[in-house]
Queue: 4 jobs
Job 1
Amino acid sequence: MQSSEGVNQFAVISTIMPHSNRETADNYRWAMIISAVLIIGATALGLLPIAIAAAAFLVPISYLVYIYDVNLWEDAPAPVVAGLFLVTGVLSVLVSLFFFDWVFADQFREFAASSRMGMDSFPLVPLLIFAVLLPVVAELVKNLPGVLLARMPQFDDMIDGLTFGVAAGTAYAAFETIVLYRSVFTSGDIRTDQGLATWVVVIINLMVIKSLIYGTASGIAVAAFSGKGEGYDGFTGYYVKNLGFAMVMNVLYWVGVRLAANLPYGQLIGLLWGFVILVVLVIRIRVMMQAALLEAAVEAAAKSDPSKRETFVESFCPECENMLLAGSHFCIVCGTSVRSSSHQARRGMGSPGDAPVGVADPGSDTGTGTTGGAP
């Protein structure tokens, strides 16, 4: 998120790529726009397999390149996220085959046929399966790899959880799209010359809307799992609330898309509905990202003084859970006075006779206590 942008501003690139500056964000933006134009051109030429595959993986591959470019973790670079992509992709294929082929194949065929018959014959059970149950299960699966990584000490910051969530969500969307449209790759009879406008809308939906909805929804949930402060927060009420929010937004997206498919210009209506959902998710994740970037900046400032590096002990504000600077008596984020904080908070930080906050007691192997997430 760039300093010139407002928190509630709808800006996709700087939201999912928060470590990019204005110049690099513009480079990614133009690269994705040019790629999108080429993908739509492939659709117009009837190269549908190429168009769908490229549309499905445009955002995930761009995100992987971004992570490699900014080198978020010097000791564990892009291969960590590449592994996250592959694991999430395998899970996505298994879940998609389970729903579309192995268990609910008949309901899916009924669902697909109903889109050509109008709202009068719309089946309720398939709607509940593919627009409610599947998105809920998918969100749980998307969270799993990110949550496992966020439990590691080197990846327990909120910005890390957000990154893992977005990466897992976009990867899941890509592999689900390949499974759902695999007939395009095996059949040579599909033509785009008679329904070019419809296919263009479908490609845009797969390329931008669906991928970003999946990514931002999972990013919100996994970032809540990481939380602020020391360690990760884990399975708290805050995580459950944000996971539920992500599930609800996915369900609303798919219910709207599935119902719109039975209406005139249904694909276009579904695309517009998806854009509305995406706006809500982007604004929500930007609010969380502001807290995440602030936490990362404070942590970097707290650990950057070489003269105090050997004696510095991590300690955290009892109110906002951001790291305190060495020797500080006030939190630079929320302004809370460390010494005048509540008795319960002080008890978690140590007694008034302890060494100053952020500095180790020479007579002890440990510094002041901390508050925050799970170890």
Job 2
Amino acid sequence: MAGLAEYELEQGDGGAVLKLAGPYLVSTIGALDEELRSLEGPIAKVDLASVSEIDTVGAWVACQIAGEHDAEIVGASDRAERLLDALEGLSSDYGIAPPRAPVWVRVPEAVGEKVFNARSGIVGVVSFLGALLISIARLARHPRNFRMVALVRQVELVGVSALPIIGLMSFLIGIVIAQQGAVQLAAFGAETLTVNLVGRITLRELGVLMTAIMVAGRSGSAFAAEIGTMKLTEEIDAMRTIGISPMEALVVPRILAAVLMMPLLGFYASCMAIIGGAFVGDIMLGIPFLTFLSRIQEVVPTYDVWVGLIKAPVFGLIVALAGCYHGMQVKGNSEEVGLRTTLSVVSAIFAVIVLDAIFAVFFTELGWG
């Protein structure tokens, strides 16, 4: 076919002759590459007389076939001769792809490399925490340097702007917990215990936990993206040049805003979840809305509220630290901003869940189970 590389294997008096025809270029030879490699010998000659065009790749293929079968290359044009002479002596016994180690070797090596590389991450986190503590101490000594406007702005972004989405999410979670809990408890004739279920699980665990996850995805990612973009555009370097500390101007206000707003957001989320549960109780269980709310005060111990309020600022600190730390680590190109933003959300959620499990054991041992 015109415009495509072709070949034909003919038997002659002196042995098999492989006749190549058409353009043998990098753009045309791909369709025949596997077929040419699978040809079985012996081949006595490789005839290039019918080759219309040839480049380095085509000449290399001809050399490879001739070398594998100990064949003679004949009928080459002047251009083909020059290319063949240039490729002479460049053949090797190495395969096209490097040898791949077995899985029982590759997996331990990959794990070992990640563990070894984790040391740089640990050093970076410790350095970041040290710089943060130094900045807080400097602001404590010189409170006039603290940027109150930046703190108020971050409080608005982290807290006030998040109220609609967190309220809706918590309301729907309360509905789901109450509905599913009522269905399961109905098998034991204990539908009225749905009040206990909704009250305790939202005030103690889910209210603060889901709020922390939402803040990590909403504000933590924003911290990483904003600070990371400022690093790429060299705004942070410019701040250092004019004597402004990026830790004091960018990191401290964001961390304080998250720590201050998380208890309020967590309590607000718990209240919205309880309202959602009361809504389901009024419709499905026949428990009046106000009666449901009054029963919450009777069945939920006060220490459940304190458990949620104690965990909330710690979760806020973890989320803000993850976002600011990964934002400060951005370097190179814009792809790094996306990577670090993703890492900030993933690491914050992972740390929050681990800490929540530790808190659960701690408060149980404390007698607040």
Job 3
Amino acid sequence: MKGRVMPFCRTSTDNIAQDAKLAEMLVAHSPAMQNVVKLIWQVAQYPSTTVLLQGESGTGKDVVARAIHELSSRATYQFVDINCAAIPDTLLETELFGVEAGAFTDAKVSREGYLLRADGGTLFLDEIGSMPLVLQAKLLRFLETRSFRRVGSTKEIHVDLRVISATNVDLQSAVAHRTFRDDLFYRLKVITIYLPPLRERPEDIVPLVEHFLQLHSNGSEEPLQISDDALELLQQYHWPGNVRELRSVIQRGQILCDENIIRPKDLPESVRLAGRNVGQRLDELKEQLHLPPEGLDLRAFLSSIEQKFIHEALEACNGNQVRAAALLGISRDQLRYRLPPRKRDQ
């Protein structure tokens, strides 16, 4: 096992260098993101504290996890990340804990897992809500003892590392539905950092655009630019894919633009349509609707449209019924009345 990593105090020289490093990693002009930055600084000073990052997909949870690692005394060791949703349940245990030679048919040699690779550093468990219950119990034991056994072994291995986990689902709800262990949930959330969606921090859109323009300039003599009207469209868009989507839009614009200037024509149709108000878009949609010659079941048709909008609103709000109802211009009770019985209590 590597030497134990201890908390450290920042000197004035550290402050300048690490402030610059954090500014490079994270764009945080909005008050909400300034609060996130403050929490990053605070938790970075305590290298053994577990951290839970919550927020929608694309909000930058992986960037925050790496920032915590880079600003801590663990920065000289490895940052090891594993996406719990991307690895089949049958393989996740061996990937995490490692495997002893002969443990099963295909285990020809002993192999270390992510826990041992992260010794001294940070283990980032992305999409922790996808971890199967059986493995959750083993992870809890590790967090309590900081020791584990490889699959097929009886030897205890001790490591010293920080665990940061992340999720885009409501773990509190998962606990209530018994798909996530309550004891593990409370062990993971010693410190919880919530990353707000981009639509809730519009002040960050322009500086993020500037950051991605610089990133995708590729060191060319003519830096990548964006026109004022294209930038205005980006500010009007609701960004369901958050920062990740914004980066993809700038990258797309770089490929399609002329003279290194991204213009409205270089933006996706969904972003261009954001420049029209809701009334205009609904009028255009209604113009496309026509009664079929054979007629239709109006009640069933309207019901299907209603259910489609409800489903999209819930998805956009990560299952939050209060926010979804506000998006649809109805009360939460009205929304719940329209939901199938099995979804009303979720």
Job 4
Amino acid sequence: MPSIHQSDIKTNKNLTILSIESSCDDTACALVRYDGTVLAEQIYSQKEHIQFGGVVPEIAARAHLSHLSALVQKTLAQAQIDWKEIDAIAATCGPGLIGGVIVGSSFAKGLALAQNLPFIGINHIEAHALTVRIPNISPLQVNFPYLLFLTSGGHCQCINVTNIGEYQRLGGTIDDAAGEAFDKVAKMLGLSWPGGPALEALAKEGDENMFTLPRPLYGRPGCDFSFSGLKTAVANLLTDYETTDVLPRQFAADVAASFQKAITTAIINRLENAIKLAPNSTLLATAGGVAANQYLRKHLLALAEKYNLPFIAPPMKYCTDNAVMIGWAAIEILHQASKHHKLMNDISMLPRPRWPLSEMSQRFDV
């Protein structure tokens, strides 16, 4: 199998990556160029889970397998290029739902073998962390180090991003991720799945001061998160309606607004501690599906302004899982590998349900 050598990276400014993402319930493919240009992208947000009110891992894996081939073909057709113009294939190798990760990475490896191309295995969290550095979608030039708040259905972390492969986890969730809390509270309120966007929309109709809900870990040292108790507090508000099929809409809206305020207040407090733990940060960034929440973004912006930091968040479609971030992470990794005079081909990399960011520097060890 071929490898990408540092000379290839330095001289080929049109280096093009075909990338695949399949860590949860979004099946995605993209073609990303060395300068961040997105030549084409396709995404299938799986509808198979709606009737279950949440992601079913086995169904997700089968759906990835069903849709990946067509998505790759559509991506190539959209970009109007053929295989000889592609320099490497990248795919998520973890962390994530292991069935989906196996399907996507195995499919990508098969393409790499068939087309005699290098394969680059990508850490899904690292890809989110680097999304804000994509030149053509970012309004700012993002330099290291920066503080990242990663928030999604499966992850909630404060990360000090100091370089490619160098990530310091300052804090994270000790139980549910923020996105999981949004989805579960939305389900309690009888909203459709995915619950986060539905809850945000309903909260606009409500009074955020109607109910006083706990702010977990508020005021404590460090920047860990906990949302399980907040979720339980919401459930306790609904006990009078346990036998009711449909909640009164105004009541549900007030609960949604109060929950959204409580979780945001807790997040901002924890992030304020994170900023103090990473005093050299050049900006505050956010990524992940919950970063699409406009109420949260408004408060993150206010926090950044309080500490005279620029604030950056990806466009909405790049907050959630996507293949563009996978392709860009591969480009960043290849560029960093060239500095270390490393050849890159991860064809033997195994898919992993867990993959700590602390291990990312190992790929550059000489």
